[in-house]
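Q: For a teaching session next week I want to show students how multiple molecules come together into a single three-dimensional assembly. I've collected the sequence lines for a complex. Could you give me the predicted structure tokens for the whole thing so I can convert them for display?
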Amino acid sequence: MKPFQDWIDDRIEAYVDGELSPEDREDFERVLAVGVGERDVLMSRRVRDGLRSLPRPMLGAGVSRHVLEHARAEAQSGPVAWLRGVADALWAPVLRPVLSMALLVLVVTSAVLIGRPARQGVTSPAEVQRALAEAKWALAYVSHVGSETGSSVRTEVLQPHVVRPMRQALDIVLDEHHKTVIR
Amino acid sequence: MGILPNSEYRRFERLVHAYQHRIFGFAFYLLTDREEAEDVTQEVLLRLWDHRSDVEEERALAWLLRVTRNACIDEMRKRAHFRKLVEVDSDALERVSGDSLPPDACAEQADFQERLEDTLCRLQEPHRSIVILREIQDMKYEEIAEALDLPLNTVKVYLHRGRKFLREQLSEVLTA
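A: Of course. Below is the structure for the complete assembly, covering every listed component.
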């Protein structure tokens, strides 16, 4: 008998709430039809209805008023809060359209500037002269360092690997200079 | 008012107006004392203001009920005689019940309701919170599960166990 009572107990509340599956409900109602568990179902309904009809107390207005006053005072204290309040108030009517327009102008300007062709660079003779002079001084320095190092290095190594490449590089630079002058 | 209130304040005000009575009702049935329930409600609402940037509006009710329950449990622990909780503030209930039932509706019903409230106070947590939220506050299972941080099925099982406890305790009155 005990397991059967447990079976009923497990299903009473779900039955009263209409949460049993159709099969379980059918089984349960078959049991109820022979008078078993009927009293428990009645009790369960009464408890549930009694709970649902208990009064729902309302909070007195004083509590929420006090809380809101506290929050409002805190929200309005200090320059940051003041600025935030002003920004919030101005955001929709003023700041949003202004920022949207500024963004539009920025996008259009960027599009115009990016689409424009780049300007061709022209090297003036004075710039070429200056570059040439810098190259000569650099080579002189390298030559000086080379001669210092050369005392400990054999000539047959220096000639092909250092002196000749440097001379060739110098010739190229001088040729370029002559061509520029002739032009 | 010097300046316009900011959006945080407006959002807070909205939440207070939406949930103040629900918080109070929950605290009232947990503590069975109007003044203590008001104190807890005030404390909970001020905590909401302090945590306004952490609490999403959609989850505010669950947050509020969780904090309310914790505050009530703290309050109950503070009481030296826990059993005295069963003494319902009948004056407060009369005030709040207002025009709910005509005086002659039935004395038996009034007696039953009184015993029901007494028995509800003897219900253990979390069954009690679940019964209050589901049956008195008419909340959905999902909302209760979120507020109490419990699985949905556990909420259903606890609700049925809670009601079964009430049913068994009240059987004497019900059959009389």
